[in-house]
Amino acid sequence: MFTLLFDIDGTLLRTRGAGLEAIRHTMQEMFDISSPLPQVSVHGRTDCGILTDVFTPFGLDFEKHRQTFLSNYSGHLQRTLPEFEGGVLPGVVPLLERLSSRDDVTLGLLTGNCRQAALIKIEHFQLQSYFCGLGGFGDQSTSRNEVARDALRAVRQRVQESFREDRLWVIGDTVDDITCARAIDAKSMVVETGGCSAEELKNGEPDVCLEDLSDVEAVLGHWSD
Ligand SMILES: [Mg+2]
Predict the structure, then answer these.
(1) What is the DSSP string of 52-68?
(2) How far is the CA of 212 from the centre of ligand 1 (A)?
(3) Which end of the chain has the smaller Cβ count within 10 Å, N or C?
(4) 172 Cα–ligand 1 center, Å
């Protein structure tokens, strides 16, 4: 059994800022904060980590508001996604179509998004039929490696004796995806569609680095006997 854990943003799809806009709406709604949010890096990070950095300059404790905030944020995200012209990235649909027809492949998510936001994004871009909600999400931890361990636990429970350690892959778009793959002894495939250059990604020493997923046959070649 091949187990393939996909990152969402920059790997499967792009939302062009809909997430940050939803955070702005939620900050305004919950704390009446309309001043510009601090510049925080979002690539490869978990919602928990991003929001901790957004909250701190305002003297707010993210942990205290975590559950309510993530739930309200997800509600706003549902409205902001159609306002921004995001889209599914090249090759993703034909690739998932091929993978989901195989009985030797289990598809999962390994994302910094909180579970609710991840599922909203996947559904908005009509990819929900390929993923059953299996994976690791950024609700609880600021560490992507921790999210990877959650994903691995969930996968092992689901796949059980068919699980093959040497056939576990993480597919992402940042060096953090490569690092978290290593944290669970998975192989990594990275794509340049999230804004990181090939040079930057190769510094993380991924197993495979591609411009994008559009050459479906070449991608599948890494996941065949
Ligand atoms: Mg990403």
Answers:
(1) HHHHGGGT--HHHHHHH
(2) 13
(3) C
(4) 6
Mean pLDDT calculated for residue range 150-167:
95
Distance 124 CA to ligand 1 centre (A): 17
Query: What's the pLDDT tens digit per position in 30-52?
Result: 999 999 999 999 999 999 999 99
Whether the predicted pLDDT of 225 surpasses 90: no
Q: Residue 53: what are its φ and ψ, rounded to 5°?
A: -70, -30
Distance (Å) from CA 43 to ligand 1 centroid: 6
DSSP 9: B
- Burial environment of residue 124 by CB neighbours within 10 A (0 to 12, 13 to 18, 19 or more): middle
Number of helices (H), then strands (E), in the chain: 9, 8
Residues 58-79 have pLDDT tens digits of: 999 999 999 999 999 999 999 9
Rounded distance from Cα 193 to ligand 1 centre (Å): 9
Which are the contacts of 112, defined by CB distance < 8 A and separation ≥ 6? 7, 9, 44, 45, 46, 47, 49, 50, 138, 144, 147
